[in-house]
Amino acid sequence: MSEPTAPHVPALPAVRRQALRHHLMSEIGRPVRRPRRMLVLAPAAGVLTAVVAAGVVTQPWAPDSAPLVVEVAPGEHGGAALLLNRMAEAAGDEPGPTSGEGEGEGEYVYIRSRGAYAELGDGPARLQPVRERELWIPRYEPGEGLLREPRFDGPLSEVIPRQSRLDDVTPNAAFVDLPTDPDALLAKLYQERGERGRGNSRDGAAFTAIGDILRESLVPPQTSAALYRAAAKIPGVEMVRGVTDAAGRRGIAVGHTELDRRDEWIFDERTYEYLGERSYLVADTPDGPAGTVLGTTAVLQRAVVSTLGERPER
After folding, report:
1. Are 171 and 188 in contact (CB under 8 A)?
2. Per the count of CB atoms within 10 A, which of 72, 195, 197, 237 is most buried?
3. pLDDT, tens only, 228-280
4. d(C-alpha 258, C-alpha 238), whole Å
5. pTM above threshold 0.85
């Protein structure tokens, strides 16, 4: 499969198109700094009603709840490279995509997830409500995508579904066609760091880019293996044990720390299935004490579907 190119953006790199796609998805990405506003929200069916972290259950939508704080466990730098290379070997033994879904026939990749991000400013960071979101991206060519997620900024008992059409979305094929040689892949990510505008250093940018691909794409085992091996070569990656995702699933994490913040990818410790992400402060800052959670996510389902908006069986 070769990467298709949209006629009107022939020079735009695939990873840059991915960054633009994420920019269009207003609630995804890094927490934004803006004036504090009170969240008066009610959970609804299909939305996670608790975040489990460090053995503590909290309700991030409660207006009087304390910021979610987790233990800052020491990272194991040597263990991260070993874990990632072990995961790459395991991925190479898989017969299909690492998500467990068969490739199937269809024109769209469907990804269902849930997550919460923090509001920053005017005191310690507090998580916004945990939201379940559904994303459809074109499989082979740039084109229209779809994002569905609830919004909680209405009255107490009101949860309003929100649906957004996405234009010129990077196709899943762009990530399938990434270099399978880890050195070549990492060099590509470093080269395109300026195009992405993400991350505080070239290593942070590369870690962020790989995390974006792991979170919202469906790739074959050889691509997953290359991503893991490339990540193992990023200076500063660390392994963190006993981490919990936004669905309450415990796993082992690969993290990267920069400017008092640690970003983690969470995996099942036995199967190495990707579970989700977590970001939090590792030092006391104006945004909160060490351990203050800035974001938490969980990927619940990946599949291939025939039409935009079609849902697979759960």
Report:
1. no
2. 237
3. 999 999 999 999 999 999 999 999 999 999 999 999 999 999 999 999 999 99
4. 12
5. no
